[in-house]
Amino acid sequence: MPNNPPVVSSVPVQRSLPVVGNLTVASNLPIIGNNLAPINPPVAGNLTLPSCVPVESSPPVPINPPTQRDRGVLTKLPKNLLFDGCSNWLLFKRKFERYARVQDLSDEECGDCLCWCLTGKAVDFYALLTVERETLPYAELMQRLQERFDARELPATAQGRFQDVQQEVGESLDDWSDRVLTLATTAFRDLPFAFATEQAVTKFCHGLLDKEAGKHVSLQLPTSMGDAMNMMRIYSHVQSACAAAPRDSQESEREESRCVHEVRRAPSPDTVSGSAVDKLTKVVDRILGSVERLSNSCGSQDDDSRVRQPVQVFRSDKDEGLYGEYAAEGSNEDGSQNRRLNKQRLVRYPEGTGCGGPRGHRNQHAY
To answer: What is the CA radius of gyration of the chain?
Structure first.
């Protein structure tokens, strides 16, 4: 028995769409018996259902060309509002934010203006940031630039550098005061500004090249940098005025009659005259003669230092009762000469022959 059902060939297939009222039905509808079964129920009204419903897609957003206001924002940008990566980042940031607030710029406009303000190392860093993306949001760009270029010095290091600073030779008072204020602001940035100003005024007085003027101004206890500079100018003016005032006539005459040594330029080693060489030779000869005389006098004094010391001796047996004295030369220091003469006397007059006994008596053991 065949599995396929018999096909009824006598059933007509309607190719044209049947109209049910004002409703149009598609031709590709399933056939149930001799009627067409609609997929969707009929909708009342004049609505026409197409065979395929298209999906709506959002149209592309057109890119708005720059307006006249955008061009005005870039043309009104200050020429000196630039950052090269080496100058003060904090100062540039404050100036740029102030300009954006005055011009009432949006975040997109701030980002456009900021990229035009970068030069040098800063624009190179901006090029690295925009390798993967063409543009960066203004907040992210400002944060990246601050992390890169806002490297602040440690407070301890800045304070040590502030304590060692001194006024340089040729530096004016204005430049010296500006440098001291800048270092004080950096060193004491976490403290109130009044404290930093007080430290700057004190350092301004103590670091002056003119120590006398610095001491004079410091003793007057200035409260601000302007007061300290005014006191310093007054001191300099008074000092110069007193130096230029006419002095007493008697004092001037007394100073004019004072004798001073003539100051001449010292001759260089290459231009020494012959007379100078002769004078030096004579001086050297005179010194050598003095040294020789001193050495000779020292030798004669050594000979005279030997004194004559009496030595008690007995004469021969004939002069038995005669007592005499031998003059023996001896040294004051060690008496070595006396000891030598005594030895000779003992050898000449051995003990028991008239010289070894007591004074004036013959030795009884001589026989």
So the answer is: 62
